């Protein structure tokens, strides 16, 4: 596999059976999904009929929700167990998603200029070379197509909130989910995007209120953020 950390893959393989439990380890993904889906759909001008690629799809939470909006979705991941969970879940919902075990770098050697929308959510901070992933995401996107990334900023606040707070104090995520050194500043992601032929349209922050337990989109990109880009 290209650009893969085996320890990261094993981490998510061990949790795969919990992927669709809305109260389990992946509860933040379930809670965030409506916000992410709405932002993607608005930026794309609607998903119905669009060819969409979800990179690092895991158990398929976002991929299935985009398919439910009428998109023709392909989901790729290098983890075997999350993909099996995603495929089994389709039997319950009846949605149509083409799941494949592959990295986006591998896919880019097979297809180019193919997808209207490419999403890569909560993945860049888990790969050894995020610039390689950004470049491959751009390569498989049609000229003028949309690419959406979500990741975590790198600063003291993100360390306190995303690691100390989320993993050790609030227990929102399993301990060891993230490594601070792999977090990516918006300026760094913008540079990776430019080098790959992507124009960053906007950055949108995602915040969490520990008292109301509600996630929201905001202008605060200090911790979690989404980057919306268009291929030139």
Automatic annotation (TrEMBL):
NCBIfam families: UbiG (TIGR01983). Keywords: Methyltransferase, S-adenosyl-L-methionine, Transferase, Ubiquinone biosynthesis. It comes from Pelomicrobium methylotrophicum. The keyword Transmembrane does not apply. The lineage of its organism: Bacteria, Pseudomonadati, Pseudomonadota, Hydrogenophilia, Hydrogenophilia incertae sedis. The keyword Methyltransferase applies. HAMAP family: UbiG. This is Ubiquinone biosynthesis O-methyltransferase. O-methyltransferase that catalyzes the 2 O-methylation steps in the ubiquinone biosynthetic pathway.
């Amino acid at each position: 596999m290209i650009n893969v950390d085996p320890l990261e893959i094993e981490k998510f393989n061990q949790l795969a059976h919990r992927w669709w439990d809305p109260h389990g380890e992946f509860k933040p993904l379930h809670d965030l999904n409506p916000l992410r889906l709405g932002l993607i759909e608005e930026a794309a001008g609607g998903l119905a009929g669009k060819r969409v690629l979800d990179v690092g799809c895991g158990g398929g939470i976002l991929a299935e929700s985009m398919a439910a909006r009428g998109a023709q979705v392909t989901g790729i991941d290098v983890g075997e167990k999350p993909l099996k969970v995603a495929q089994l879940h389709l039997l319950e919902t009846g949605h149509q998603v083409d799941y494949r075990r592959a990295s986006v770098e591998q896919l880019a050697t097979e297809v180019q200029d193919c997808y209207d929308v490419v999403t890569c959510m909560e993945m860049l901070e888990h790969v050894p070379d995020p610039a390689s992933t950004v470049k491959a995401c751009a390569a498989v996107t049609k000229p003028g197509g949309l690419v959406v990334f979500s990741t975590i900023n790198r600063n003291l606040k993100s360390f306190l909130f995303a690691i100390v707070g989320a993993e050790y104090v609030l227990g929102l995520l399993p301990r060891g989910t993230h490594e601070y050194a792999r977090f990516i500043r918006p300026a760094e992601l913008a540079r990776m995007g430019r080098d790959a032929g992507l124009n960053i349209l906007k950055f949108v922050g995602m915040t969490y209120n520990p008292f109301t337990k509600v996630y929201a989109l905001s202008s605060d990109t200090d911790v979690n953020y989404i980057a919306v880009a268009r291929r030139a």
